[in-house]
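thought: fold this chain, then report.
action: predict
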Amino acid sequence: MKNKFIIVSLDDWEGLYYKDKLIKEGHEIKRPELVDLMKKHQVWDVDFDYLDAEGEEIVQDSGCMFHTYEEVKKYIESN
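observation:
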């Protein structure tokens, strides 16, 4: 995984992944907070992904995002 952040979204919830690990989640990752995290981790690239219906159901049932991006990948919506 390149040195970048990946933000995974569903309805009103987001998870921020860095080097395969979930480092932040909440209703919204605000821009100033994202910029601060980018500076802290020396990251200058951000990708945005969205969960499919099955992934959304799993997150809603568990009450939190997947712990790793590796777990999330199979539930990403295809374009």
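thought: worth noting. The beta strands are 5-10, 13-18, 21-26, 46-50.
final: tokens above.
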